[in-house]
Write a structure and sequence with these properties.
The chain has about 55 residues and is mainly α. The protein is built from two helices and no strands.
Length: about 55
Amino acid sequence: MLDEQVEVLRSRMAATVPTVVAALPPQAADRLLHEHGRWVAATGWTSINAADPCGT
């Protein structure tokens, strides 16, 4: 179910990012494009808090 929702979000982001990039200063636009590219290329799921189970 999460994979399906990520695909919906990827589609929405693909349509939104170019509009946002056009409104950003060059350095911020480059950063957004870089990070969006990393996010789109990600496969599988990774817990970002795996080493810190208590949130500290």
